[in-house]
Amino acid sequence: MRRRNKFRDHKLEARLFRSRAVFAFICIVFLAGLLVLNIYCLQVTQHEYYQTRSNSNRIKIIPVPPTRGLIYDRNGIILAENVPVFSLELVPEKIENISETIEKLRGIIDISQEQEERFKKNLKRARRFSSIPLLDNLNEEQVARFSVNRYKYPGVDVIATLKRHYPYADILTHSLGYVARLNQSDLNRLITAGKDHNYKATRNIGKIGIERYYEDVLHGKVGYQEVEVNSRGRVIRTLKYVPPVSGQDITLNIDVKLQSYIHKLLGGRKGAAVVVDPHDNGVLAMVSSPSYDPNAFVGGISNHDYKALLTNRNRPLINRATLGTYSPGSTIKPFIAVAALKERSITPRTKVRSVGAWRVPNSSTRAFRDWLKWGHGNVDVTQSIEQSVNTFFYQIAYDMGIDSLSNWMMMFGFGESTGIDIFEETSANMPTRAWKRNRFNKPWYIGDTIPIGIGQGYWTATPIQIANATSILVNNGRKKPLQLLDSLSNQNDSTKNKLAESPPIQGVPSNYWELARYGMYLVNHGKNGTSRTVFRNALYKSAGKSGTSQVFGLAENEEYDADNTPEHLRDLALFTGFAPYEEPEIVVTVILENAGGGSFNSAPIVKKIFDQVLIK
Known about the structure:
By secondary structure, the chain is an alpha+beta fold. Strands 2, 3, 4, 5, 10, 17 and 18 form a seven-stranded mixed beta sheet that branches. Strands 12-11-21-20-19 form a five-stranded antiparallel beta sheet, sandwiched between helices. Strands 1-8-9 form a three-stranded antiparallel beta sheet.
C-alpha cells in the first residue's frame, strides 16, 4: 500500500495565526473597553446611585422617639407621667419563623393567645426591621428568665421603654384622657395631616381628653440615629445622632385635690360636676361619674375588659360633663329672666298670680302645672326665681315666643359647644322652628314653647353649658372661653394660655343682671328659697338655682312619687350656683341622674364644694 505524503504550508498557517491573533486582540481590547466603560459608569456617572444602594445595605436610619411631655395640675402635682418599663420585643427581619419563635418563648415566659394576636396585628402594620412589642410590663423574674436564654432567640430582646402612667387613675379620666396604641385610623389621620413622619418610632398616641387635644404639644419631635451594620444586621457603630425634642409639659387649671374630693362626693353615682373660676373661666374640676381607670388602655386593654366597659349599664365611658344631654330644668330661669327683662316681656315690678297651673289664653288644652299644686300667690321676678315658680315662666315663654327665647338662650351658650379644650363635647339642642321642621317635619306649636320656659320640652343641655351660662350671668354677659389648659412649658420658659373673649351679650342694663343674681341669692338665703335649708348655716353668702328634670311625663292630675318610681325613671337633680355672692370666686354645676329634686340632692353637694374651696 502506497503512503501519501503531506506537505505543510507554513506561510498560510502563519497568516491564519496572525489573523486569529488580531481578532482575539481586538476582542480583548473591545471587552476591556466595555469593562473600563462600565467601571467609569459605576465609579463616576452613577456613583451617587450605587453609593446610596451600598449605604442602604450597610447603613440604617433608626428613628428615636421623643419623650412625651408631662401634665401637672394648677399646684404642680403631676397628673400624667412617664415610667420606665421592660417589654419583650421582636425584630421580624432577624427571625426566620416568628410563630415557631413565639411558641418556644412560651417555654420560659407566659404568652396568652390574645397577646400573640395583638402582636400579629401590629406586625402587619410595622416595617420588617422595626422592633415590635410582644409583651409589656415584664417583671424582674420574667426579665431574668429571658436574659439567661437570650442567646437562643436571635431577633428577640428585652427593651427598656417609657410608659404613660396616670397616678390618679379613674379620678381624672374624662379630663386627661389617655394614650393608647396607634391604630390604622390614627395613621390615616396623621398621613392626611402630613404628620406621619413624626411618628416613625412612636407606638402610642393621645386618644381622648387633654392627651388627644394637645397631642402635637405633648408628643415632641422625633430624632434619629444613623448606624453602620454588618452582614448579620448587628450594629457596628453609630455614624450620626440627632436627638429627639421632648414634648412640652403642660399645666392645667384643674385642682386635683378638689377633683378628688368631688369624685368621692359623687361616690360612683351617675352624674357630673363642673367647677369654674369665673374670673378667667378656668376649669378647676370636671368630674364624670362613674369613671374607669385609663391605665388599662395604655398597654392595650383586653377584649374582655373593654366589653365589660361597653356593656356597663352605667356607661362609665361617657363624659357626662360634656356629652351628657339633659333637660336643664329650672336652672335656666335666671337666664330667661334677664332675657325677659331686656325684651320688656316683664319689668322688675311685674307680678303674676300663681294658682298652681297655667293655661294658654283662649285655649282648652291641658293646663301646665306648677310644682306647688296650690300655687305661690302674687310673685315678681326675684320671688319667682327664689321659689322656682313655673307659672311665672310659662307666661314669659308665652309672651316672648320661641324665636326670641331660642335666640337669647343661644347668647348664653346653649345649642352650641362651649369650646372647652377637649374634643368630646356635644352642642346638645336649643330647639327652634327650623329644628322641629327638619327633625319631625311638623310645625312649631305654642304648646311646644311653654315648657321651654322652665327648661323642659325639646331643650337639652350639658352640665358644662349650664356652668358656662352661669359664669356669663356672673360676669354681666361677658363670655370667656372655658379652658382646662393653664400654661405650656419647656426647659427654657413657660407660656400662659390666653384666649380671646367672644362678643358679650350687649345692651342689658346692669340692674337686670343683678336682679337675676339676687333671685339666685334668695334661693339659698331667702325665707322661701328652695335651697334655704341646705345653706342656712353657711359661713358665706352664695347664690344658686335648683332644677328638677322629668324623665317621663305625668297625667294632668297625676302626682310624682319618687319612692314608688323605678330608679331609671326618677327625676334628674340639678343645681348651679356661685359663691361668694358679692365677689364670686367659683361657679359650680352638679347633676345627678335619677336622684329626685335638685334642692334636696344636688344642692348639698354644691354646698360641700363651696365649703371645700372657700373655708380655709
